[in-house]
């Protein structure tokens, strides 16, 4: 029985991500999640009593999915030997975040980031976590003698996030030249 409840919570959180991505923060309601999930009215509110509880579940699920994606991406890439490897990895991540399921999660993530300004619990969940991708960037920069590796890693990945955001808003893409510029700046 516990597994079924846990599975139902995951389905509802995944559905909430889609509702948020497609309808925005104002469209995220318990009823909208019930409808989209094809569940009887009241199901979402039975599992997540308040809107805050629904948002917390959504953000927690979003972070888990992002962490799994970053882990898989880092494991699928060879060790970062040169600048081209790092730029290529960043380009791959940007493409993943701009297409299909990744696009949907990116839209939801940015909406949640804005909500987290007023909600310390959401902000805490959304705080960047260590993962294999972040560690690969850290090691790459450290191997090149960058003194403030933690700050440079954070700045580089934050800038990548900004480029993805800009591409989502403008309907464009992340240009390779922009990524090359970010890496060059991180190495200076």
UniProtKB/TrEMBL annotation:
DNA-binding region: 29-48
Protein name, entry field: TetR/AcrR family transcriptional regulator
Pfam families: TetR_C_31, TetR_N
Domain named HTH tetR-type: residues: 6-66
Superkingdom of the organism of origin: Bacteria
Gene3D superfamilies: Tetracycline Repressor, domain 2 (1.10.357.10)
InterPro entries in the cross-refs: Homeodomain-like_sf, HTH_TetR, Tet_transcr_reg_TetR-rel_C_sf, TetR_C_31
Keywords linked to the UniProt accession: DNA-binding
SUPFAM superfamilies: Homeodomain-like, Tetracyclin repressor-like, C-terminal domain
Naturally occurring in which organism (per UniProt): Streptomyces toxytricini
